[in-house]
TrEMBL record:
<keyword id="KW-0812">Transmembrane</keyword>
<feature type="transmembrane region" description="Helical">
    <location>
        <begin position="185"/>
        <end position="203"/>
    </location>
</feature>
<keyword id="KW-0472">Membrane</keyword>
<feature type="transmembrane region" description="Helical">
    <location>
        <begin position="33"/>
        <end position="53"/>
    </location>
</feature>
<keyword id="KW-1133">Transmembrane helix</keyword>
<feature type="transmembrane region" description="Helical">
    <location>
        <begin position="120"/>
        <end position="139"/>
    </location>
</feature>
<feature type="transmembrane region" description="Helical">
    <location>
        <begin position="6"/>
        <end position="26"/>
    </location>
</feature>
<feature type="transmembrane region" description="Helical">
    <location>
        <begin position="73"/>
        <end position="99"/>
    </location>
</feature>
<protein>
    <recommendedName>
        <fullName>DUF5135 domain-containing protein</fullName>
    </recommendedName>
</protein>
<feature type="transmembrane region" description="Helical">
    <location>
        <begin position="151"/>
        <end position="173"/>
    </location>
</feature>
Length: 223
């Protein structure tokens, strides 16, 4: 499942993200790979069909209404949550990486690079679609979206690739190879040190690794 926190959104998001792969594979003329995109859905449907006795159970037994019972929230909820996911240093590097890709789209030589289309669609495209879809579902009150920003955690590996692009761009400010290495080392060190600064988006031992008050109460009630 693409989103364990929102099982009702699995179909919607998977179709949207699969669309990106279809565009990429068609553009690369990898025709033989196209049928594989439906393999996961086929297996998922077959397992469910054995339980429900209905091949189309994914649609017929979907218990979640199109209109959310949880209401809706601001359009900015998921975008504003990204620094909490990445930390301010990585978020800044990811911003640089995104800006670099945007500028690259305007340059013909960059667009003609061998892996440009793959990076644009499969990294930046997947991030954009995932965040945008959750934003729309929450803002419009669709598919029982509860606005839980923790679902963004699945995009962290892709954001790491974007941040590396930003790191490489920032390092280019160095005039010598040694200067570029120092910039890279400084920014990577800052990303690690930030985790232990006690900032709200950094590690806080009691909050992140301790037992929450409600869990403590539940433990006491069961002993």
């Amino acid at each position: 499942m693409l989103n364990g926190q929102y099982p009702n959104l699995t179909i919607d998001l998977s179709y949207t993200l699969l669309g990106i792969w279809v565009v990429y594979l068609v553009g690369q003329r990898q025709w033989r790979c196209l049928p594989l995109l439906g393999l996961g859905y086929a297996v998922y449907s077959a397992v469910g069909a054995a339980v429900f006795g209905e091949p189309g159970w994914v649609f017929g037994h979907n218990p979640y209404a199109t209109t959310s019972v949880y209401g809706h929230g601001p359009w900015t909820t998921f975008v504003f949550a990204l620094p909490s996911l990445l930390g301010w240093v990585l978020a800044g590097l990811a911003g640089l990486g995104g800006a670099r890709m945007a500028l690259g789209c305007l340059r013909r030589a960059r667009r003609q690079a061998p892996r440009f289309r793959a990076e644009l669609l499969l990294v930046y495209g997947n991030i954009a679609v995932f965040v945008l879809a959750h934003t729309i579902f929450w803002a419009e009150g669709l598919f029982n979206s509860f606005g839980l920003t923790r679902v963004l955690a699945v995009t962290a590996p892709l954001f790491a690739v974007v941040a590396l692009n930003g790191l490489d761009w920032a390092a280019a400010l160095g005039r010598t190879p040694g200067g570029q290495r120092r910039i890279r080392a400084g920014l990577m060190g800052a990303a690690v040190v930030f985790l232990f600064t006690g900032a709200r988006t950094a590690f806080r031992w009691q909050r992140d690794f301790g037992v929450a008050p409600d869990q403590q109460l539940a433990n006491q009630a069961t002993t």
